[in-house]
Amino acid sequence: MSTMVSWAVPTFDDNSGMTTIDNNYSPGDSFPIGEVEVIYSAMDGSGNTAVCSFFVIVSDMEAPTFQNCPMGDVMVAYSATSGNLTAAVWPDIVATDNDASINVTVTSTYQSGDLFPLGITPVNVTAVDDYGNIALCQFDVVVFDGIPPYFSFCPPPVTVPTDLGLMTKNLSVLAVAVDNSGEVTLTPDMEIQAFPVGTTNIVFESIDSSGNVAMCNTSVIVQGELVLFL
What we know:
It comes from Holothuria leucospilota (Black long sea cucumber). Keywords: Repeat. InterPro entries: HYR_dom. By secondary structure, the protein is an all-beta fold. The chain is built from no helices and 21 strands. It has a 4-stranded mixed sheet with strand order 7-13-12-10, with no helix packed on it. The protein has a 4-stranded mixed sheet with strand order 15-21-20-18, with no helix packed on it. Strands 2-4-5 form a 3-stranded antiparallel sheet, with no helix packed on it. It is rod-shaped.
């Protein structure tokens, strides 16, 4: 990379009125990044000389540029590659500078192929060139669970008599639900309930940590005789 630089040309005066001027650079020349000395020298007819010199300093103020920085979220379906973590993969993220001779150092909080938990995890990639110019690539890895729980046991409908001397039946009706994430909430809690005579329909609902829902339907039929006292 080079940059065109201009300046006012130095002037020399001599009592003889005759001078010869030499210079190593001229206004409009291109200069690389860094520091370059510009020298003007003047000589009169008697060989007397004078020198004017200064430095042209070209600074790199442009940040590196990323290639393959994800433009949005990296979406990954939960698969529990290791424990409750899932591997997320994205294209190799590289950074280059406006001058190929300048080194760029790239660091990242995560690498492609790392394991991520369910939910949203920010990823920050930083590129710094030799002159301290910084570029950032930021995106989120979103591990989502689209699979609902399932019932490993959904109790079948049951018909039972009332408890002795009562018009109800104390009974436990239990269902078992599991989920690929290992986290599940099951409602209602039907452990030791008093069911009245007749049919009670029960709907078990299982919800995992991602809000996926599964349902299990069953019923309890309590049979009893209605005794009339005259």
